[in-house]
Amino acid sequence: MTDRMPVSPGDLLGDGVFETMHLRPDGPWLLDAHLLRLARSAALLEMPAPVAARDRVTEAAVGTGAMRIIYTRSGLLHASVSAIPPAVLRERRDGIRVISAGLGVSAGRRPPWDISAAKSLSYASNFAARRWAARQGADDLIWLSTEGYALEAPTASVVWLTGDTLCTVPPSSAAILPGITAAHLLSVAPSVGLHAVERMVTLPELAAADAIWLASSVRGLAEVISLDGVSRARSPWTPRLLELLGF
Amino acid sequence: MTDRMPVSPGDLLGDGVFETMHLRPDGPWLLDAHLLRLARSAALLEMPAPVAARDRVTEAAVGTGAMRIIYTRSGLLHASVSAIPPAVLRERRDGIRVISAGLGVSAGRRPPWDISAAKSLSYASNFAARRWAARQGADDLIWLSTEGYALEAPTASVVWLTGDTLCTVPPSSAAILPGITAAHLLSVAPSVGLHAVERMVTLPELAAADAIWLASSVRGLAEVISLDGVSRARSPWTPRLLELLGF
């Protein structure tokens, strides 16, 4: 896809925010929530509100795929659509092998300028973490705090089911990005008879859950079919929850 | 300065490396060391070697100022020159008020995919840290590990003088970016009668030093004239070391 735009060198220093959405036939999925998070991310980086974001998205929303909107400190605001990579579709259908790894930070000890709650353009560490996971033979990884809490994946939220309770990690306690897909899933969980709870979870607690998923906008839900090398039975809830999310 | 280049949206995700050099009348200062670090940063991010980097720098090296070379995962390799901001010149001449702040990470507990030793384009946290310092009324800040060791500044290395020993933080032990200006300064220190040592330093040890500087390519040396609100006497070594570095 040739979708090139003129930028200044300063635009390339990861100093901005972005969102990725699932562009469906009826428009970008959960658009309002994504625009709200874009604005909150910008505020966390002390950037002006991205007032033209909805217009940019509307102009670019042609067809279906993965829609990304980027907003840099210089004021560049750009939306584009790309095809969903086959690997993403495969992981949604077949599940993923995940490993856990310490992030080296404490959930409660972030610096005062911490921008973990913003979806910033500084994604080199996220990509490096996923490359590392791939070298270990895994599809993705779950970051652990120094206290041993599961936090998030480099590009996804952690969701798990224990009995009839669907859980995710509380973003404010964990100092992680608030996941839009996970929050939406928990908000609609009662419609299929599940309770919804946000709580911190240790790795052993997570491993003991009935099912685990990584939730994100384009992949939707990818079921964790092995965690740290231990295979997990497929959950009958995976197709039901995917359907609930419109996948 | 209108120096715009066409990029793809993926180029804006901070997934690449860069260098900033002091472009002097006789060319980019310490060019070989900067090109070597660019290549090492690229290797840490598992990118191909930036083979055309020297050519790009040579083509762009017109006049004097701050020269930046950027290299992204898509293969974009771009060098440009901008004017040195007046604040940088002022800080080199008048010194800086610095505060210390915990980074929330352990020097010895970085994750296996850690890219702290690479000068990556993911600079949003560095900028956020400097904005936070400015809000506290400071010019810059020094990051501390959870163990209380001084690590580095968001865009500079820490250098200090105790007696006739000039010190900086060992990059490999501290898991920080290897500072080119600091390393060069220590390598030439014997020519002015100073010993040179790399060692870890706690904040109280640093505060007890005879002089402290932040070292970087364009600012050169900025003397720390106050640390955490405590004023420090100007060191007679500041002009001597600046001269030694050609400033």
Salient structural properties:
8 helices, 247 residues, eight-stranded mixed β-sheet, alpha+beta, homodimer, 13 strands, D-amino Acid Aminotransferase, Chain A, domain 2, 28% helix
Shape call of chain A: globular
The string of secondary-structure elements of chain A, in order, is: EEEHHEEHEHEEEHHEHEEEH
Low-confidence region ranges of chain A? none
For the termini of chain A, the CA-CA separation is 24 Å
Count of DSSP strands of chain A: 13
Q: Classify the helix fraction of chain A into a percent range.
A: 25-40%
Described by its quaternary structure, the protein is homodimer
Beta-strand portion of chain A reads: 25-35%
User: What is the CATH superfamily of the largest domain in chain A?
Assistant: D-amino Acid Aminotransferase, subunit A, domain 2
CATH topology of the largest domain in chain A: D-amino Acid Aminotransferase, Chain A, domain 2
Family (chains A, B): Belongs to the class-IV pyridoxal-phosphate-dependent aminotransferase family.
GO molecular function, one term (chains A, B): transaminase activity
Organism (chains A, B): Actinoplanes aureus
Protein name (chains A, B): Aminotransferase class IV
